[in-house]
Amino acid sequence: MSFHHLAIATRDMPATHAFYSAAMGFDLVRVEKARAPTGGWAKHFFYDTGNGEMMAFWELHDDSIPKDFATSISEGLGLPQWTNHIAFAATDLEDLAQKRDRLRRAGHRVMELDHHWCTSIYATDPNGIMVEFCVTTAAFTAADAEKALSAVNSDELPDDPPPIRTMWEPLTA
User: Fold this and answer.
1) Same fold across 1-69 and 83-173
2) Whole-number Å distance between alpha carbons of 116 and 97
């Protein structure tokens, strides 16, 4: 089942818009303004990420909410940035390379990891949220499913080979 949208709060909508439109390549398709249940109001911005799914951002104008609230999903919970992240699909390695280069042209550093079953690129949005584009490069096997199921109740499993990491610096004009 697909999802309709994922909603995140932002403190800097202009920077968030620049990142998700120019760097990520998503189209801003709708905004709603509504009164907040606790007083104040909010704008809710929706970006089309493809396949009828969207990413949304709340711009909050509510005095009951601290002005300096944490926007990073992970760091706001005291976790490393990479734990809670948002992964979007790439169709193939060529599409992934195009997405990587768009992020770089928009001034972002990109980390690429070949996980040996998928390849991913990562960048950080203006809210401190790690975003990923990922393409699956190997089919899952029955052995993969068995290993995953056994790991639900046991920590006794071998380490996987480390991913192959490449860092890509921003492209300058």
Assistant:
1) yes
2) 17
Q: How far apart are CA 19 and CA 59, in angstroms?
A: 15
Partners of 58 in beta bridges: 9, 44
List, for residues 67-98, the tens digit of each pLDDT value: 899 999 999 899 999 999 999 999 999 999 99
C-alpha to C-alpha distance for 135 and 122, rounded to whole angstroms: 12
Q: Are 21 and 71 within 8 A, CB to CB?
A: no
Please answer whether residues 34 and 42 qualify as being in contact, where contact means their C-beta atoms are separated by less than 8 angstroms: yes
Contact 62, 42 (CB under 8 A): yes
Instruction: Look at the domain 83-173 and name its fold.
Output: 2,3-Dihydroxybiphenyl 1,2-Dioxygenase; domain 1 (3.10.180)
11-51 pLDDT, tens digit per residue, is 999 999 999 999 999 999 999 999 988 889 999 999 999 99
Whose structure tokens read 């929706």? 46
- CATH T-level topology, domain 1-69: 2,3-Dihydroxybiphenyl 1,2-Dioxygenase; domain 1 (3.10.180)
Beta-bridge mates of residue 56:
7, 46
Domain ranges within the chain, ordered by starting residue: 1-69, 83-173
**Residue carrying structure tokens 């080979």:** 161
Say how far apart CA 164 and CA 65 lie, in whole Å. Answer: 42
